[in-house]
Amino acid sequence: MPKRSVEMLVDLWMSLLLLWITCVPCVSMTPITGQSKSTQTGGSTVVASGLGEGQRLLSRAKRGWVWNQMFVLEEFSGPDPILVGRLHTDLDVGSKNIKYVLAGEGAGTIFAINELTGDIHAMKRLDREEKAEYTLTAQVINADTDEPLEPPSEFIIKVQDINDNPPQFIEGPYRASVPEMSAVGTPVTRVTATDADDPVYGNSAKLVYSILEGQPYFSIDPSSATIKVALHGMDREMREEYLVVIQAKDMGGHMGGLSGTTTVTVTLTDINDNPPKFSKSLYEFVIPEDLPIGKMGGKVKANDRDVGENSKSTYSIVEGDEQGVFEIVTDSQTQEGILRLKRPLDYESKRAFTLKVEATNIRSEPSSGGPFKDTATVKIVVDDSDEPPVFSKPVYQLEVHENAPLSTVIGTVTARDPDSTGSVVRYFIDRHTDLERQFNINVDDGKITLAKPLDRETDMWHNITVTATEVRNHSQISRAIVAIRVMDINDNAPEFATEYEAFLCENGKPGQVIQTVSAVDKDDPIQGHKFDYRLVPEMLNNPNFTIKSNQDNSISVLAKHDTFRRQKQEMYFLPIIVTDNGSPPMSSTNTLTIRVCGCSKDGIVQSCNVEAYVLPIGLSMGALIAILACIILLLVVLFVTLRRHKNEPLIIKDDEDVRENIIRYDDEGGGEEDTEAFDIATLQNPDGINGYLPRKDIKPDLQFMPRAGQHSGPNGVDVDEFINVRLHEADNDPTAPPYDSIQIYGYEGRGSIAGSLSSLETASSDSDQNYDYLREWGPRFRRLGELYSVGESDRET
């Protein structure tokens, strides 16, 4: 059919469609029996759509009809306003002056009413997708007085839909995936298109889906829009991605409907449908004999057309490596098989290997009949190398008794040259591991001998390194560790585990345990320690103490009577012999010191000193400690205060009148108590002055070099002579004022047997006092003596 004829046919159908839509409101205005919302006694209002003015649909007898809907066609764009409908009331008989009034949504703007005839026109182009209906109110009023003749009646104007919106894929374009080799009919994805037209009016929103591109690989359900696989055996390795164009058409897919399209990109996902394949069937490698264990000897690679996890393979040696010399591991990054050395190679014993290597996929698909695998042959040729000597053992463990004679042979190490030529081997000790040179080794036969005496109690183990070097090639060196264990002999006597100091109560009972004593031994016999305790022979029959074994390598010291008194004897010494069970037995004599102390009724030690026994009973021990502490604290405060006053110098400002310090010589002085005239702390020893003491009361205008005064001798100076010298210097001083002035004579004389009486000049301090006597008063006073005793290290600090 010619294109022109098709266009004319389409225009004809569109005209007939518009005519049919326009006639629908006229037909649909047939009254429906029911109760009218605007019923009243005075009259009835009716509405008719598209009728002439001379026509009457309703009579007064049928005022119960419903007339609450009108229709208007959307997107109407004629030259004149479109008539929506007509309002009419039975009050309009031509004899009364009435007027129709319209109110509500769009009244006056979108919709206009003829006040005389009641005709309603649409003034603007309407779009149902913007607003589908309008609610308005109609009323009849008196044209002269504007008084309502009827109550207002509400009605709805519905915008009738036309097919003016094409389908749209809101979520497009789409991406989907489906496994390769999927069966025909396998769902891939589902697309959805929307149409803004009215779905309940006509077929404007009824959509039908079809494929424009993508056949014969995929199909689509016209109603559900489900895309499915349409071709069998789609292989990802051949083609991975497909572009499918989907069309959605309204009007049920008939001619004249609008359409929209979208694209769907379908990707075939991989399945394990391809086996690994070696790039070569035979691999050849040459590996040196001295290749370190764990190092790579070669690489093999099996390629797989699959991707991801489906392409990963694992490698294994299936034949030719019965001795386990090699291993093959998979490189996770390159998917290569790394051939590594697992055990040392020996050119002299085996010079070539033929291995069969297999590559197997890690994952398998049940539908593909896997797992997939492939094999290849690997030939390895061992290249001869000059190897270092090889020890018979990598680690040697030797034993030697402590105190063994020098040059004793401890053991022997052996090494050989594995090469076919067989070089002679020399042995040496790495002196970095034997700094004290306690061992020697014979360079020819590897015998290790003792060079210095050993003591197990000092070092139980000695780890040295022995090297073996080829005579032919000194660069070929091997090392072996030699662990030498020093075996114990009984060369140490047992002794007390600690320095015991026992306390015995005066009111103790006979048989009371005074102290539990145990011993230790530096030796370590195989059968364990067992000690024997006994008193020295001269103390076996002593009347005061005895010992008893506790059957656990310890003893208890017991008192024999209850008549111990501090006044009689405050301290006892009990020598005890301790013997071990070694061969030969070793023994030592240890002395236990026992103090006699005063105890409470509960047996708690209170005092262990004789002087403490005669203290007043009225004062408790805590009160005595508090009093002593307060006295010491007061002495410290007094000492600090006096020392601070002594260090304050006499300062006379230049603007002060020095005559304030003048003392008249004809007055009787106040002696050492007169401290108001000057500070007595400024008196200085003449031994520290170089023969002349500058004046402190004035600053002389004329300076002169002082005459050297008579220097004090080291052994003694006459005070009268010293004063005469100072008086002579003052009389001949040209800078002296014309008035008398105080002269400072800071010298008390020398040679006194008693020495200085001032405590401030003494070189001693509280730290020089001895508080050791407090320790003899018992455990409670021992702690006090430690607090107030100052050791030599504290004094230096």
TrEMBL record:
Keyword annotations from UniProtKB, A to Z: Calcium, Cell adhesion, Cell junction, Cell membrane, Glycoprotein, Membrane, Metal-binding, Repeat, Signal, Transmembrane, Transmembrane helix
Biological role: Cadherins are calcium-dependent cell adhesion proteins.
Gene3D superfamilies from the UniProt entry: Cadherins, TCF3-CBD (Catenin binding domain)
Membrane topology label: Single-pass type I membrane protein
Ranges annotated as spanning the membrane: 613-640
Residue span, Cadherin domain: 89-169, 170-278, 279-391, 392-496, 496-618
GO biological process, one term: adherens junction organization
Name assigned to this protein: Cadherin-8 isoform X2
